[in-house]
Specification:
Elements (H helix, E strand, L loop, with lengths): L1 H10 L7 E9 L5 E3 L7 E3 L4 E6 L7 E6 L5 E5 L2 H7 L8 H5 L5 E10 L4 E8 L6 E10 L4 E12 L4 E11 L4 E10 L5 E9 L2 E10 L5 E5 L4 E5 L6 E7 L5 E6 L3 E6 L5 E6 L4 E6 L5 E6 L4 E8 L2 E6 L2 E6 L5 E6 L15 E3 L3 E5 L7 E7 L1
């Protein structure tokens, strides 16, 4: 019994190899918080050097918020996309100027990538209004250094009466290809399947590179630099599927995945996909070659993100704590209680983000005045 008590105390002991390097609030605009669009999620961009915090609220001039890693310096960049469309109104759906007013019925709906090495960024602009009979979707490329819109490529046009649901989801950026990727899905409301497309964006333009069908649309995605692999996962509370796409070979591997998959990462040798279900608490290890299950570990429920925050540790970030597993055997190593970082109030770590091999952006989505955020570096 005494040995068990000692083991538990060691398991939950504080870890001093991690340190909080920055703390800030995000959410409702005030003197202390950064105001962002409610649907924005944090993204690591600029080859891991910047954290994308979100875009300005819709009623404010278009802008993106960033934070440098690890310095913590925050800055905002205005985006001149409206000025571009003012000069290129021929691209817009008929009636955009009449009904959209000064905004031309345009809005930035998804941030795709931002890369200072190539001076290129990209985002999705939607052209829609309830009085306009057509909806248009543009991928806009932006020269960061010159603050100039380079192009607006129309990837989809839908008549408002069409019984179609169309969505664009970011995937990520592959450093070795200097290319960003996104997925689209287009499903009839009565259809049992989702028709998905994978697109690439770089200095050469916007190109569709793959089409495939799945039961659930790819809503949880990532690109893993150095591996050439894109992971696209569907989401469902009971059953889901997904895919791994290799941009080098063009091969696509279909996956059967557990319900409510929130955390996933690829091993250093790119041979294994590790993912965790927030509903069942199961950690699964799948082969990236054929999608077969190699191993299963009980990791616990109510988690919101997972991945390798160091080469030898995989973490599963739960509302109760940061659960740390060995990277080779996936045995539970230690647990850091969430109360270590958020002393009072309720906690839900939704919106947290792994900094691969370096640390964690820990976000509490239940803050009283915006969301408190802690940047923890290894």
């Amino acid at each position: 019994m005494r040995f068990g008590m000692i083991f538990l105390s060691l398991l939950f002991m504080p870890l001093y190899s991690q340190s909080i390097v920055h703390e800030f609030m995000i959410g409702t605009p005030s003197d202390e918080t950064i105001g962002i669009g409610q649907t924005d999620q944090f993204q690591l961009v600029d080859r891991g050097n910047l954290l994308y915090l979100g875009k300005a609220p819709i009623r404010e001039p278009a802008a993106f918020h960033f934070m440098e890693i690890p310095s913590g310096k925050r800055f905002t960049l205005p985006v001149p996309f409206l000025e571009y469309f003012q000069k290129n109104k021929g691209k817009l759906a008929a009636g955009s100027e009449t009904h959209g007013g000064s905004t031309l019925a345009l809005s930035i709906s998804e941030f795709l990538f931002f890369d200072r090495s190539t001076d290129l960024a990209a985002f999705l602009v939607e052209n829609r209004h309830y009085k306009i009979s057509e909806k248009k979707f543009f991928i806009v490329t932006w020269n960061i250094r010159n603050n100039q819109i380079l192009s607006a490529t129309e990837i989809k046009s839908i008549r408002s009466k069409e019984n179609r649901f169309y969505k664009v989801e970011p995937i990520g950026f592959l450093d070795e290809k200097s290319t960003g990727y996104f997925a689209t899905y287009n499903a009839d409301f009565k259809s049992k399947n989702s028709i998905n497309e994978i697109w690439a964006v770089n200095s050469a333009g916007v190109q569709k590179i793959k089409e495939y069908t799945s039961t659930f649309p790819p809503s949880r995605n990532n690109a893993f630099s150095g591996t050439g692999k894109l992971v696209l996962l569907g989401y469902d509370e009971e059953l889901a599927d997904g895919a791994i796409f290799d941009v080098h070979s063009g091969a696509l591997v279909s996956l059967s995945i557990p319900p409510a998959t929130y955390g996933f990462d690829i091993s250093a040798d790119a041979s294994r996909l590790i993912l965790v279900s927030a509903k069942t608490g199961e950690l699964q290890i799948l082969s990236t070659n054929d999608g077969k299950k190699l191993k299963s570990v009980k990791a616990g429920t109510y988690g919101h993100t997972g991945g390798f925050w160091s080469p030898d540790e995989f973490i599963w970030v739960r509302n109760s704590g940061i659960h740390i597993y060995t990277a080779d055997t996936f045995k539970l190593k230690k647990v850091i209680p969430i109360r270590t970082y958020f002393k009072t109030g309720n906690t839900r770590v939704q919106g947290s983000l792994i900094i691969p091999g370096r640390g964690l952006v820990l976000r509490n989505a239940m803050g009283d005045n915006g969301d408190p955020v802690k940047v923890i570096m290894r």
